[in-house]
Structure formats: C-alpha cells, structure tokens
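pasting for the record
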Amino acid sequence: MTVIIPRWEWRTFTNDLKAYAKSLTVYGEAKIKKSQEYYILSQNSNENVKIREDLIDIKSLKNVNSDKLEQWDPIMKEGFPVKKETLTKLFNIFNVKAPAFQKDAYTYQEFLDEVIKPCPELKIVEVKKNRFIYSINGCAVEYAETEFNGVPLQTACVEHVDPAIVMKTVTALGLTGKANVNYIRAMKEAVGMKYSA
C-alpha cells in the first residue's frame, strides 16, 4: 500500500504574475495541464470539494504552520453514481443539514441538479485552469491562469513535503511578501461568498 505524505503548500492569487511566469522559463520547459472542473463551496465550511474527471474529490486542511503554509490531506474520492450514504458524509463535510434524499444513488447531473443546486448554503463554481508546472528545488512550482465563474485570476504555487524547502523556494523565486491565499479563499472572494478563516 502506497503511503501518501501530504505536501505543504504556499499559493497566491493576483493578476500581476505575467513577469513571474516569464521568469520561470529559465528552469526548462513546463508541463502544461488544462482542465475544467466544478467546485462546490459551502458557506459553513472551507473544505476543498471538487468534481474532476467524474469523481468527487475532497481535500481537508489539516495543518497550518508558523509560516502560514497549509497542508491539505485527501479524504474522499468517490465516483458516480454516488450513494446516499456517501452524500450524508459529504453534507457533514459541508457542515450543512442533509436534505431528504429521494434516491438510493445519483448520477453526476442528478447530483448537481437535485442535490446541490436546491441547497442555499452551497454554490457551484465552474473553474477553468491553464497550468504551467515546473520542478524547482524538488518542489512542484506552478503558474496558472484560472477563471472562477468567468472571473479571471492568476496564481502561483510552491509545494513540497518539507515546509523549509517550500519557503526557501518561495524566497528564491521572489514571491516573498505576496499574500498566501488558498483556492477556496480566492474562489469565495471571486464569487461573493464569505470566507471564514
């Protein structure tokens, strides 16, 4: 059995990262990934819940260190159709009272239309990502152009299992001083939902 060690993450969102993106090209050719995903935001929770490649994929914030680096841990990957027992667990993660499920299982579209959309505490966000990924100091270093329900934002990210290496790389890349902001916070602010730290 493979043991997954959660990585420490530093990330920022802004719209002035074009020069930074160009500076990364000295480290070689980027691995490019494009995707379109749906995130589900809860006004009562800051957990990272997304639908990617027909999977409900959830990460939970486990630790924040003295440098404000965050460690996110995968806690669920569930395919469709999704059973109502799993949906009960999901609504616990949302910190929202579960509705009375009318079916034993829901397809992808039924899940969005019949379970999520009727719930006023939840919001579906369409997320588009154009990611450029490098390996620097053993870290996964990313520049990405994103859209949250059509709102454009650029993001820079540095990840590694060793938080000291993350901070060393953030400094070397000239990112010190920019706010450390995770995906959920940036997304909530972009779509007008309150983020409670």
